[in-house]
Amino acid sequence: MAASSSSSDEPSRSVFLGVDVGTGSARAGLFDEEGKLLGSSSSPIQIWKDGACVEQSSTDIWLAVCAAVKAACSKAKVASTEVKVAVDSDSSPVSVSWSGDSRRNVIVWMDHRAIEQAERINSSKSPILEYCGAAVSPEMEPPKLLWVKENLQESWSMVFRWMDLSDWLSYRATGDDTRSLCTTVCKWTYLGHAHMQHVNDKESRDLEACGWDDDFWEEIGLGDLIEGHHAKIGRSVAFPGHPLGSGLTPTAAKELGLVPGIPVGTSLIDAHAGGVGVIESVPQSEAADHDKEAICNRMVLVCGTSTCHMAVSRSKLFIPGVWGPFWSAMVPEYWLTEGGQSATGALLDHIIEDHAASACLANQAASQKISLFELLNKMLETMMVELNLSFIAALTKDVHVLPDFHGNRSPIADPKAKGVIYGLTLDTSDKQLALLYLATVQGIAYGTRHIVEHCNAHGHKINTLLACGGLSKNPIFIQEHADIIGSPIILPRESEPVLLGAAILGAVATRKYHSLSEAMKALNAAGQVIHPSKDPKVKKYHDAKYKIFRGLYEQQLSYRSAMAQALS
Protein backbone atom coordinates (compact mmCIF):
# COMPACT_ATOMS: atom_id res chain seq x y z
CA MET A 1 0.00 0.00 0.00
CA ALA A 2 1.13 3.58 -0.39
CA ALA A 3 0.29 7.12 0.53
CA SER A 4 0.98 10.77 -0.30
CA SER A 5 0.43 13.56 2.17
CA SER A 6 0.41 17.31 2.69
CA SER A 7 -0.57 19.69 5.48
CA SER A 8 -1.19 23.42 5.78
CA ASP A 9 1.75 23.86 8.17
CA GLU A 10 4.41 22.49 5.86
CA PRO A 11 5.22 22.21 2.15
CA SER A 12 3.46 19.44 0.28
CA ARG A 13 5.21 16.12 0.69
CA SER A 14 4.60 12.55 -0.35
CA VAL A 15 4.36 9.66 2.07
CA PHE A 16 3.93 6.10 0.84
CA LEU A 17 2.36 3.35 2.91
CA GLY A 18 3.31 -0.28 2.22
CA VAL A 19 1.47 -3.33 3.56
CA ASP A 20 2.86 -6.87 3.55
CA VAL A 21 0.99 -9.97 4.70
CA GLY A 22 3.48 -12.70 5.49
CA THR A 23 3.07 -16.19 6.86
CA GLY A 24 2.84 -15.14 10.50
CA SER A 25 1.97 -11.44 10.54
CA ALA A 26 0.68 -8.39 8.68
CA ARG A 27 3.11 -5.49 8.52
CA ALA A 28 2.76 -1.85 7.48
CA GLY A 29 5.38 0.83 6.89
CA LEU A 30 5.44 4.49 5.81
CA PHE A 31 8.16 5.85 3.50
CA ASP A 32 9.09 9.34 2.33
CA GLU A 33 9.84 10.48 -1.24
CA GLU A 34 13.41 9.18 -1.00
CA GLY A 35 12.26 5.71 0.04
CA LYS A 36 13.31 6.19 3.68
CA LEU A 37 11.29 4.36 6.32
CA LEU A 38 9.39 6.71 8.65
CA GLY A 39 7.72 4.09 10.84
CA SER A 40 6.44 0.52 10.75
CA SER A 41 4.37 -1.93 12.75
CA SER A 42 3.20 -5.52 12.64
CA SER A 43 0.25 -7.54 13.90
CA PRO A 44 0.18 -11.34 14.29
CA ILE A 45 -2.00 -13.63 12.18
CA GLN A 46 -3.58 -16.84 13.46
CA ILE A 47 -2.49 -20.00 11.66
CA TRP A 48 -3.77 -23.57 11.85
CA LYS A 49 -1.44 -26.49 11.05
CA ASP A 50 -2.61 -30.07 10.69
CA GLY A 51 -0.13 -32.35 8.94
CA ALA A 52 0.29 -31.15 5.37
CA CYS A 53 -2.60 -28.69 5.74
CA VAL A 54 -1.85 -25.07 6.70
CA GLU A 55 -4.75 -22.62 6.91
CA GLN A 56 -5.62 -19.05 7.90
CA SER A 57 -8.64 -16.76 8.12
CA SER A 58 -9.19 -13.87 5.70
CA THR A 59 -11.19 -12.04 8.38
CA ASP A 60 -8.31 -12.35 10.84
CA ILE A 61 -5.82 -11.21 8.17
CA TRP A 62 -7.84 -8.08 7.39
CA LEU A 63 -8.12 -7.18 11.08
CA ALA A 64 -4.35 -7.61 11.41
CA VAL A 65 -3.78 -5.35 8.37
CA CYS A 66 -6.00 -2.67 9.89
CA ALA A 67 -4.18 -2.83 13.22
CA ALA A 68 -0.76 -2.65 11.57
CA VAL A 69 -1.71 0.33 9.37
CA LYS A 70 -3.08 2.33 12.30
CA ALA A 71 -0.03 1.59 14.46
CA ALA A 72 2.41 2.43 11.63
CA CYS A 73 0.71 5.79 11.04
CA SER A 74 0.96 6.52 14.75
CA LYS A 75 4.67 5.59 14.95
CA ALA A 76 5.46 7.65 11.85
CA LYS A 77 3.43 10.57 13.24
CA VAL A 78 1.36 10.67 10.04
CA ALA A 79 -2.29 11.65 10.58
CA SER A 80 -4.96 9.64 8.80
CA THR A 81 -5.96 12.77 6.88
CA GLU A 82 -2.40 13.03 5.52
CA VAL A 83 -2.48 9.63 3.86
CA LYS A 84 -3.60 10.14 0.30
CA VAL A 85 -2.63 6.88 -1.38
CA ALA A 86 -3.01 3.23 -0.42
CA VAL A 87 -1.64 0.34 -2.46
CA ASP A 88 -1.33 -3.28 -2.50
CA SER A 89 -19.06 -8.94 -2.49
CA ASP A 90 -18.70 -8.94 1.28
CA SER A 91 -19.31 -12.65 0.81
CA SER A 92 -19.19 -14.97 3.81
CA PRO A 93 -16.02 -17.08 4.05
CA VAL A 94 -16.21 -20.70 2.89
CA SER A 95 -14.15 -23.35 4.66
CA VAL A 96 -11.23 -25.02 2.86
CA SER A 97 -10.54 -27.16 5.90
CA TRP A 98 -11.36 -30.76 6.83
CA SER A 99 -12.63 -29.24 10.08
CA GLY A 100 -15.47 -27.42 8.33
CA ASP A 101 -14.55 -24.25 10.28
CA SER A 102 -15.70 -21.38 8.04
CA ARG A 103 -13.05 -19.10 9.52
CA ARG A 104 -10.39 -21.27 7.87
CA ASN A 105 -10.94 -20.09 4.29
CA VAL A 106 -7.28 -19.48 3.31
CA ILE A 107 -4.94 -22.25 2.15
CA VAL A 108 -1.46 -20.98 3.02
CA TRP A 109 1.26 -21.11 0.34
CA MET A 110 3.29 -23.67 2.33
CA ASP A 111 0.36 -26.12 2.49
CA HIS A 112 1.38 -29.38 0.74
CA ARG A 113 -1.95 -31.26 0.83
CA ALA A 114 -2.14 -31.28 -2.99
CA ILE A 115 1.02 -33.24 -3.87
CA GLU A 116 -1.00 -36.00 -5.55
CA GLN A 117 -3.04 -33.46 -7.54
CA ALA A 118 0.16 -31.70 -8.65
CA GLU A 119 1.60 -35.02 -9.86
CA ARG A 120 -1.54 -35.72 -11.91
CA ILE A 121 -1.51 -32.25 -13.43
CA ASN A 122 2.16 -32.64 -14.33
CA SER A 123 1.53 -36.02 -15.95
CA SER A 124 -0.73 -34.24 -18.46
CA LYS A 125 2.39 -32.71 -20.08
CA SER A 126 0.33 -29.64 -20.97
CA PRO A 127 2.27 -27.03 -22.99
CA ILE A 128 1.37 -24.46 -20.34
CA LEU A 129 3.67 -26.25 -17.89
CA GLU A 130 6.66 -24.92 -19.86
CA TYR A 131 5.99 -21.58 -18.19
CA CYS A 132 6.35 -22.90 -14.63
CA GLY A 133 9.57 -24.89 -14.85
CA ALA A 134 7.88 -27.84 -16.63
CA ALA A 135 5.90 -28.74 -13.50
CA VAL A 136 3.36 -27.11 -11.17
CA SER A 137 4.20 -27.15 -7.48
CA PRO A 138 1.69 -28.21 -4.80
CA GLU A 139 2.21 -24.64 -3.55
CA MET A 140 0.50 -23.27 -6.69
CA GLU A 141 -3.23 -22.71 -7.07
CA PRO A 142 -4.37 -25.32 -9.68
CA PRO A 143 -3.47 -28.38 -7.56
CA LYS A 144 -4.90 -26.76 -4.42
CA LEU A 145 -8.16 -25.99 -6.22
CA LEU A 146 -8.34 -29.53 -7.56
CA TRP A 147 -7.84 -30.88 -4.04
CA VAL A 148 -10.76 -28.78 -2.72
CA LYS A 149 -13.02 -29.92 -5.56
CA GLU A 150 -12.18 -33.58 -4.93
CA ASN A 151 -12.29 -33.50 -1.13
CA LEU A 152 -14.62 -30.70 -0.04
CA GLN A 153 -17.41 -30.82 -2.60
CA GLU A 154 -19.88 -28.82 -0.51
CA SER A 155 -17.38 -25.98 -0.10
CA TRP A 156 -16.53 -26.16 -3.81
CA SER A 157 -20.18 -25.71 -4.78
CA MET A 158 -20.58 -22.72 -2.43
CA VAL A 159 -17.58 -20.64 -3.55
CA PHE A 160 -18.40 -17.48 -5.52
CA ARG A 161 -14.80 -16.53 -6.36
CA TRP A 162 -11.30 -17.90 -5.78
CA MET A 163 -8.61 -15.29 -5.16
CA ASP A 164 -4.92 -15.04 -4.36
CA LEU A 165 -4.51 -13.38 -0.96
CA SER A 166 -2.91 -10.20 -2.33
CA ASP A 167 -5.73 -9.82 -4.88
CA TRP A 168 -8.28 -10.39 -2.13
CA LEU A 169 -6.72 -7.62 -0.04
CA SER A 170 -7.01 -5.19 -2.96
CA TYR A 171 -10.59 -6.36 -3.55
CA ARG A 172 -11.40 -5.97 0.15
CA ALA A 173 -10.04 -2.41 0.01
CA THR A 174 -11.77 -1.32 -3.22
CA GLY A 175 -14.49 -3.77 -4.26
CA ASP A 176 -12.67 -4.14 -7.61
CA ASP A 177 -12.12 -7.78 -8.64
CA THR A 178 -9.33 -7.03 -11.16
CA ARG A 179 -6.46 -9.48 -10.63
CA SER A 180 -2.73 -8.79 -10.68
CA LEU A 181 -0.53 -10.07 -13.50
CA CYS A 182 1.92 -11.01 -10.75
CA THR A 183 -0.39 -13.38 -8.88
CA THR A 184 -2.18 -14.87 -11.88
CA VAL A 185 1.00 -15.51 -13.87
CA CYS A 186 3.15 -16.82 -11.01
CA LYS A 187 0.58 -18.94 -9.18
CA TRP A 188 -2.33 -19.66 -11.53
CA THR A 189 -0.61 -20.54 -14.89
CA TYR A 190 -1.98 -17.37 -16.54
CA LEU A 191 0.03 -16.43 -19.65
CA GLY A 192 1.01 -12.81 -19.05
CA HIS A 193 2.71 -12.44 -22.41
CA ALA A 194 -0.76 -12.39 -23.96
CA HIS A 195 -0.66 -8.70 -22.97
CA MET A 196 2.66 -7.72 -24.55
CA GLN A 197 0.91 -5.27 -26.85
CA HIS A 198 -0.45 -3.35 -23.84
CA VAL A 199 2.83 -2.67 -22.03
CA ASN A 200 3.34 0.72 -23.72
CA ASP A 201 -0.24 1.93 -23.31
CA LYS A 202 -0.12 5.54 -22.15
CA GLU A 203 -3.06 5.06 -19.80
CA SER A 204 -3.04 2.27 -17.21
CA ARG A 205 -6.19 0.19 -17.40
CA ASP A 206 -7.59 -3.16 -16.50
CA LEU A 207 -7.38 -5.69 -19.32
CA GLU A 208 -9.69 -8.47 -20.41
CA ALA A 209 -8.21 -11.73 -19.12
CA CYS A 210 -7.15 -13.31 -22.41
CA GLY A 211 -4.23 -15.29 -20.97
CA TRP A 212 -6.18 -18.20 -19.49
CA ASP A 213 -5.65 -21.54 -21.26
CA ASP A 214 -9.13 -23.07 -21.21
CA ASP A 215 -7.87 -26.40 -22.56
CA PHE A 216 -5.57 -26.73 -19.55
CA TRP A 217 -8.36 -26.17 -17.02
CA GLU A 218 -10.62 -28.62 -18.85
CA GLU A 219 -7.87 -31.23 -19.07
CA ILE A 220 -7.06 -31.18 -15.34
CA GLY A 221 -10.71 -31.45 -14.30
CA LEU A 222 -11.42 -27.82 -13.42
CA GLY A 223 -13.34 -26.79 -16.53
CA ASP A 224 -16.10 -25.27 -14.39
CA LEU A 225 -13.69 -22.43 -13.54
CA ILE A 226 -13.81 -21.09 -17.09
CA GLU A 227 -17.56 -20.54 -16.90
CA GLY A 228 -18.84 -16.96 -17.03
CA HIS A 229 -15.69 -15.74 -18.77
CA HIS A 230 -13.56 -16.99 -15.85
CA ALA A 231 -15.69 -15.13 -13.31
CA LYS A 232 -14.46 -17.23 -10.38
CA ILE A 233 -10.74 -16.84 -11.12
CA GLY A 234 -10.53 -13.45 -12.84
CA ARG A 235 -12.24 -11.76 -15.80
CA SER A 236 -9.81 -8.85 -15.88
CA VAL A 237 -6.13 -8.37 -15.00
CA ALA A 238 -3.80 -5.39 -14.67
CA PHE A 239 -0.11 -4.61 -14.38
CA PRO A 240 1.09 -4.15 -10.77
CA GLY A 241 0.51 -0.58 -9.60
CA HIS A 242 -2.58 0.01 -11.75
CA PRO A 243 -5.13 2.07 -9.71
CA LEU A 244 -8.16 -0.06 -8.87
CA GLY A 245 -11.79 1.06 -8.95
CA SER A 246 -12.53 4.35 -7.21
CA GLY A 247 -9.86 3.79 -4.61
CA LEU A 248 -10.42 2.93 -0.96
CA THR A 249 -14.10 2.32 -0.16
CA PRO A 250 -15.69 4.20 2.76
CA THR A 251 -16.01 0.94 4.72
CA ALA A 252 -12.38 -0.08 4.21
CA ALA A 253 -11.18 3.47 4.91
CA LYS A 254 -12.98 3.50 8.25
CA GLU A 255 -11.52 0.12 9.22
CA LEU A 256 -7.99 1.17 8.23
CA GLY A 257 -8.23 4.61 9.80
CA LEU A 258 -7.64 6.27 6.41
CA VAL A 259 -9.56 8.47 3.98
CA PRO A 260 -12.03 7.15 1.35
CA GLY A 261 -10.96 7.43 -2.29
CA ILE A 262 -7.26 6.84 -1.67
CA PRO A 263 -5.90 5.20 -4.86
CA VAL A 264 -5.31 1.48 -4.39
CA GLY A 265 -2.92 -0.21 -6.79
CA THR A 266 -2.92 -3.72 -8.21
CA SER A 267 -0.83 -5.88 -5.89
CA LEU A 268 2.31 -8.01 -5.90
CA ILE A 269 3.01 -11.27 -4.09
CA ASP A 270 5.08 -10.41 -1.00
CA ALA A 271 8.36 -11.88 -2.31
CA HIS A 272 7.92 -10.04 -5.61
CA ALA A 273 7.30 -6.81 -3.68
CA GLY A 274 10.66 -7.50 -2.06
CA GLY A 275 12.17 -7.80 -5.52
CA VAL A 276 10.68 -4.45 -6.54
CA GLY A 277 11.94 -2.90 -3.30
CA VAL A 278 15.50 -4.16 -3.77
CA ILE A 279 16.56 -5.02 -7.32
CA GLU A 280 17.66 -1.46 -8.19
CA SER A 281 19.48 -1.05 -4.85
CA VAL A 282 22.93 -0.79 -6.36
CA PRO A 283 25.87 1.54 -5.61
CA GLN A 284 25.70 5.01 -7.18
CA SER A 285 28.32 4.12 -9.78
CA GLU A 286 26.06 1.35 -11.11
CA ALA A 287 22.83 3.29 -10.63
CA ALA A 288 24.02 5.81 -13.24
CA ASP A 289 24.38 3.01 -15.78
CA HIS A 290 21.39 3.03 -18.14
CA ASP A 291 22.22 -0.36 -19.65
CA LYS A 292 18.95 -2.32 -19.65
CA GLU A 293 20.93 -5.56 -19.37
CA ALA A 294 22.58 -4.62 -16.03
CA ILE A 295 19.52 -5.62 -14.03
CA CYS A 296 19.73 -9.07 -15.64
CA ASN A 297 23.00 -9.81 -13.81
CA ARG A 298 21.29 -9.62 -10.41
CA MET A 299 19.33 -12.09 -8.32
CA VAL A 300 17.21 -11.02 -5.35
CA LEU A 301 16.99 -13.33 -2.34
CA VAL A 302 13.86 -12.67 -0.28
CA CYS A 303 14.75 -14.58 2.88
CA GLY A 304 12.00 -15.20 5.41
CA THR A 305 10.02 -18.30 6.38
CA SER A 306 11.06 -19.52 2.94
CA THR A 307 13.46 -17.99 0.43
CA CYS A 308 12.51 -16.82 -3.06
CA HIS A 309 15.20 -16.31 -5.70
CA MET A 310 14.15 -13.67 -8.27
CA ALA A 311 16.05 -12.94 -11.50
CA VAL A 312 14.93 -11.22 -14.69
CA SER A 313 15.94 -11.46 -18.35
CA ARG A 314 15.10 -9.64 -21.58
CA SER A 315 14.32 -12.93 -23.35
CA LYS A 316 12.38 -15.88 -21.98
CA LEU A 317 14.50 -18.64 -20.47
CA PHE A 318 12.98 -22.05 -19.91
CA ILE A 319 14.72 -23.61 -16.90
CA PRO A 320 13.67 -27.08 -15.72
CA GLY A 321 12.72 -27.11 -12.05
CA VAL A 322 12.60 -23.31 -11.73
CA TRP A 323 9.31 -21.41 -11.95
CA GLY A 324 8.83 -19.22 -15.00
CA PRO A 325 9.50 -17.61 -17.35
CA PHE A 326 6.82 -15.17 -16.18
CA TRP A 327 6.42 -12.08 -18.38
CA SER A 328 6.11 -8.74 -16.52
CA ALA A 329 5.26 -10.54 -13.27
CA MET A 330 7.71 -8.38 -11.30
CA VAL A 331 9.62 -5.90 -13.50
CA PRO A 332 7.61 -4.65 -16.51
CA GLU A 333 8.78 -5.97 -19.91
CA TYR A 334 11.22 -8.46 -18.35
CA TRP A 335 10.78 -12.21 -17.99
CA LEU A 336 10.95 -13.37 -14.37
CA THR A 337 12.71 -16.55 -13.25
CA GLU A 338 11.62 -17.55 -9.74
CA GLY A 339 13.57 -20.14 -7.78
CA GLY A 340 12.88 -20.96 -4.19
CA GLN A 341 13.46 -22.96 -1.03
CA SER A 342 10.24 -23.87 0.77
CA ALA A 343 11.69 -23.78 4.28
CA THR A 344 14.62 -21.59 5.35
CA GLY A 345 13.68 -19.39 8.32
CA ALA A 346 11.11 -22.05 9.21
CA LEU A 347 13.82 -24.71 9.05
CA LEU A 348 16.23 -22.79 11.28
CA ASP A 349 13.42 -22.29 13.81
CA HIS A 350 12.63 -26.02 13.65
CA ILE A 351 16.26 -27.09 14.11
CA ILE A 352 16.76 -24.74 17.08
CA GLU A 353 13.43 -25.24 18.84
CA ASP A 354 13.61 -29.04 18.57
CA HIS A 355 17.01 -29.21 20.29
CA ALA A 356 17.45 -30.11 23.97
CA ALA A 357 19.57 -27.00 24.59
CA SER A 358 17.08 -24.59 23.00
CA ALA A 359 15.19 -23.47 26.11
CA CYS A 360 18.36 -22.82 28.09
CA LEU A 361 19.90 -20.77 25.27
CA ALA A 362 16.65 -18.82 24.80
CA ASN A 363 16.78 -17.82 28.48
CA GLN A 364 20.43 -16.78 28.16
CA ALA A 365 19.63 -14.66 25.10
CA ALA A 366 16.71 -13.00 26.90
CA SER A 367 18.89 -12.20 29.93
CA GLN A 368 21.45 -10.59 27.62
CA LYS A 369 18.67 -8.77 25.71
CA ILE A 370 19.82 -10.18 22.37
CA SER A 371 18.20 -12.57 19.90
CA LEU A 372 18.87 -16.30 20.00
CA PHE A 373 20.58 -15.99 16.61
CA GLU A 374 22.92 -13.30 17.97
CA LEU A 375 23.81 -15.56 20.90
CA LEU A 376 24.51 -18.53 18.61
CA ASN A 377 26.67 -16.34 16.37
CA LYS A 378 28.71 -15.18 19.39
CA MET A 379 29.14 -18.79 20.50
CA LEU A 380 30.44 -19.77 17.05
CA GLU A 381 33.00 -16.95 17.12
CA THR A 382 34.22 -18.12 20.52
CA MET A 383 34.39 -21.76 19.40
CA MET A 384 36.44 -20.76 16.34
CA VAL A 385 38.98 -18.98 18.55
CA GLU A 386 39.10 -21.84 21.06
CA LEU A 387 39.81 -24.37 18.31
CA ASN A 388 42.32 -22.06 16.62
CA LEU A 389 40.51 -22.18 13.29
CA SER A 390 41.16 -19.57 10.60
CA PHE A 391 37.50 -19.28 9.51
CA ILE A 392 34.19 -19.99 11.18
CA ALA A 393 32.78 -22.34 8.51
CA ALA A 394 35.45 -24.93 9.35
CA LEU A 395 33.57 -25.74 12.56
CA THR A 396 31.13 -27.93 10.60
CA LYS A 397 33.57 -30.25 8.84
CA ASP A 398 31.78 -33.25 10.38
CA VAL A 399 28.18 -32.01 10.07
CA HIS A 400 26.31 -31.76 6.76
CA VAL A 401 22.68 -30.73 6.20
CA LEU A 402 20.38 -31.21 3.22
CA PRO A 403 17.69 -28.58 3.98
CA ASP A 404 14.80 -30.17 2.05
CA PHE A 405 12.66 -30.70 5.17
CA HIS A 406 9.62 -29.36 3.27
CA GLY A 407 10.53 -30.76 -0.13
CA ASN A 408 12.72 -29.17 -2.80
CA ARG A 409 11.08 -26.33 -4.73
CA SER A 410 14.11 -25.51 -6.93
CA PRO A 411 15.98 -26.59 -8.91
CA ILE A 412 15.05 -30.26 -8.42
CA ALA A 413 11.30 -29.60 -8.03
CA ASP A 414 10.75 -32.62 -5.82
CA PRO A 415 8.07 -31.97 -3.17
CA LYS A 416 8.75 -35.45 -1.76
CA ALA A 417 12.41 -34.70 -1.01
CA LYS A 418 13.37 -35.10 2.64
CA GLY A 419 15.85 -33.30 4.87
CA VAL A 420 19.07 -34.98 5.92
CA ILE A 421 21.43 -34.34 8.83
CA TYR A 422 24.76 -36.19 8.64
CA GLY A 423 27.05 -36.28 11.66
CA LEU A 424 24.73 -36.62 14.66
CA THR A 425 26.03 -37.89 18.00
CA LEU A 426 24.62 -38.24 21.53
CA ASP A 427 25.85 -34.72 22.30
CA THR A 428 22.96 -32.42 23.31
CA SER A 429 25.03 -29.44 24.47
CA ASP A 430 24.55 -25.82 23.49
CA LYS A 431 27.77 -26.02 21.46
CA GLN A 432 26.35 -28.92 19.44
CA LEU A 433 23.24 -26.85 18.74
CA ALA A 434 25.46 -23.98 17.53
CA LEU A 435 27.22 -26.36 15.11
CA LEU A 436 23.90 -27.74 13.87
CA TYR A 437 22.60 -24.20 13.37
CA LEU A 438 25.69 -23.23 11.35
CA ALA A 439 25.54 -26.41 9.24
CA THR A 440 21.87 -25.66 8.49
CA VAL A 441 22.71 -22.10 7.42
CA GLN A 442 25.38 -23.56 5.13
CA GLY A 443 22.95 -26.16 3.74
CA ILE A 444 20.52 -23.37 2.85
CA ALA A 445 23.36 -21.44 1.18
CA TYR A 446 24.45 -24.52 -0.81
CA GLY A 447 20.85 -24.79 -1.99
CA THR A 448 21.00 -21.20 -3.23
CA ARG A 449 24.34 -21.94 -4.96
CA HIS A 450 22.66 -24.87 -6.72
CA ILE A 451 19.85 -22.58 -7.92
CA VAL A 452 22.26 -19.87 -9.14
CA GLU A 453 24.46 -22.38 -10.98
CA HIS A 454 21.42 -24.04 -12.54
CA CYS A 455 20.00 -20.70 -13.73
CA ASN A 456 23.35 -19.60 -15.18
CA ALA A 457 23.70 -22.94 -16.95
CA HIS A 458 20.37 -22.22 -18.69
CA GLY A 459 21.06 -18.69 -19.95
CA HIS A 460 21.21 -16.32 -16.99
CA LYS A 461 24.38 -14.35 -16.20
CA ILE A 462 23.92 -13.76 -12.47
CA ASN A 463 26.99 -12.31 -10.74
CA THR A 464 25.50 -10.18 -7.96
CA LEU A 465 23.01 -11.02 -5.23
CA LEU A 466 20.73 -8.65 -3.34
CA ALA A 467 19.15 -9.89 -0.12
CA CYS A 468 16.23 -8.78 2.02
CA GLY A 469 13.90 -10.29 4.60
CA GLY A 470 14.46 -11.28 8.21
CA LEU A 471 17.32 -13.71 7.58
CA SER A 472 19.28 -11.08 5.65
CA LYS A 473 19.76 -9.25 8.96
CA ASN A 474 21.81 -12.18 10.27
CA PRO A 475 25.50 -11.48 9.46
CA ILE A 476 26.58 -15.15 9.52
CA PHE A 477 23.70 -16.13 7.23
CA ILE A 478 24.74 -13.47 4.69
CA GLN A 479 28.50 -14.04 4.93
CA GLU A 480 28.12 -17.80 4.47
CA HIS A 481 25.99 -17.17 1.37
CA ALA A 482 28.61 -14.79 -0.06
CA ASP A 483 31.45 -17.25 0.61
CA ILE A 484 29.56 -20.29 -0.69
CA ILE A 485 28.21 -18.68 -3.87
CA GLY A 486 31.29 -16.55 -4.49
CA SER A 487 29.33 -13.38 -5.24
CA PRO A 488 28.97 -10.06 -3.46
CA ILE A 489 25.66 -9.55 -1.67
CA ILE A 490 24.12 -6.08 -1.57
CA LEU A 491 21.85 -5.27 1.36
CA PRO A 492 19.28 -2.49 0.95
CA ARG A 493 19.60 0.79 2.83
CA GLU A 494 16.13 0.41 4.31
CA SER A 495 15.27 -2.34 6.78
CA GLU A 496 11.83 -3.13 5.28
CA PRO A 497 12.24 -3.48 1.50
CA VAL A 498 9.16 -5.71 1.07
CA LEU A 499 7.07 -2.89 2.52
CA LEU A 500 8.95 -0.44 0.29
CA GLY A 501 8.10 -2.55 -2.75
CA ALA A 502 4.43 -2.45 -1.81
CA ALA A 503 4.66 1.32 -1.23
CA ILE A 504 6.24 1.75 -4.68
CA LEU A 505 3.05 0.29 -6.18
CA GLY A 506 1.14 3.09 -4.48
CA ALA A 507 3.54 5.70 -5.81
CA VAL A 508 2.81 4.42 -9.31
CA ALA A 509 -0.96 4.28 -8.68
CA THR A 510 -0.93 7.98 -7.73
CA ARG A 511 0.92 8.88 -10.93
CA LYS A 512 3.81 10.14 -8.82
CA TYR A 513 5.95 8.09 -11.21
CA HIS A 514 5.14 7.17 -14.80
CA SER A 515 6.21 3.54 -14.45
CA LEU A 516 7.18 0.90 -11.94
CA SER A 517 10.74 0.92 -13.30
CA GLU A 518 11.06 4.70 -12.78
CA ALA A 519 9.75 4.39 -9.21
CA MET A 520 12.15 1.54 -8.43
CA LYS A 521 15.15 3.54 -9.59
CA ALA A 522 14.04 6.55 -7.55
CA LEU A 523 13.20 4.75 -4.29
CA ASN A 524 15.62 1.80 -4.14
CA ALA A 525 18.95 2.48 -2.38
CA ALA A 526 21.93 0.28 -1.54
CA GLY A 527 23.29 -0.20 1.94
CA GLN A 528 26.12 -2.49 3.05
CA VAL A 529 27.86 -4.76 0.51
CA ILE A 530 29.09 -8.14 1.79
CA HIS A 531 31.98 -9.60 -0.21
CA PRO A 532 33.05 -13.25 -0.34
CA SER A 533 36.23 -14.23 1.51
CA LYS A 534 39.45 -13.91 -0.47
CA ASP A 535 41.02 -16.80 1.47
CA PRO A 536 41.45 -19.70 -1.01
CA LYS A 537 41.06 -22.15 1.89
CA VAL A 538 37.48 -20.96 2.38
CA LYS A 539 36.61 -21.63 -1.25
CA LYS A 540 38.29 -25.07 -1.18
CA TYR A 541 36.42 -25.98 2.00
CA HIS A 542 33.00 -24.95 0.66
CA ASP A 543 33.60 -26.65 -2.68
CA ALA A 544 34.21 -29.90 -0.78
CA LYS A 545 31.10 -29.47 1.39
CA TYR A 546 29.01 -28.53 -1.65
CA LYS A 547 29.98 -31.79 -3.33
CA ILE A 548 28.82 -33.66 -0.22
CA PHE A 549 25.62 -31.57 -0.21
CA ARG A 550 24.80 -32.58 -3.78
CA GLY A 551 25.57 -36.22 -2.95
CA LEU A 552 23.09 -36.29 -0.07
CA TYR A 553 20.16 -35.92 -2.46
CA GLU A 554 21.58 -38.45 -4.93
CA GLN A 555 21.89 -40.95 -2.07
CA GLN A 556 18.30 -40.21 -1.07
CA LEU A 557 17.08 -41.06 -4.56
CA SER A 558 19.01 -44.30 -4.44
CA TYR A 559 17.51 -45.23 -1.07
CA ARG A 560 14.02 -44.25 -2.23
CA SER A 561 14.37 -46.49 -5.27
CA ALA A 562 15.69 -49.41 -3.19
CA MET A 563 12.77 -49.24 -0.78
CA ALA A 564 10.22 -48.90 -3.58
CA GLN A 565 11.63 -52.05 -5.17
CA ALA A 566 11.53 -53.85 -1.82
CA LEU A 567 7.84 -53.04 -1.45
CA SER A 568 6.86 -53.73 -5.04
Could you walk me through the main structural features you see in this protein, from its secondary elements to its overall organization?
- This protein is of the alpha+beta class.
- It has a domain at about 15-265: Nucleotidyltransferase, domain 5.
- It has 19 helices and 20 strands.
- The chain has helices at about 60-75, 115-125, 140-150, 155-160, 165-175, 180-190, 215-220, 225-230, 250-255, 270-280, 285, 345-355, 360-370, 370-385, 430-455, 475-485, 495-510, 515-525, 535-565; strands spanning about 5, 10-15, 15-20, 25-30, 35-45, 50, 55, 105, 180, 205-210, 235-240, 300-305, 305-315, 325, 335-340, 400, 420, 465-470, 490, 525-530.
- Strands 14-15-13-12-18-19-20 form a seven-stranded mixed sheet, with helices on both faces.
- α10 packs across α17, α15 packs across α16 and α17 crosses α18.
- It is globular.
- The termini are far apart.
- The model is unreliable at about 1-10 and about 85-90 (pLDDT under 50).
Summarize the structure.
This is FGGY carbohydrate kinase domain-containing protein. It contains 19 helices and 20 strands. The protein has helices spanning 58-75, 115-123, 141-151, 153-158, 165-174, 181-188, 214-219, 227-230, 250-256, 270-278, 284-287, 345-353, 358-368, 372-386, 430-457, 475-485, 497-509, 516-523, 536-567; strands at 5-7, 10-13, 16-21, 25-31, 37-44, 48-50, 53-56, 106-107, 179-180, 207-208, 236-238, 298-303, 307-313, 323-327, 335-341, 400-402, 420-422, 464-468, 489-492, 526-530.
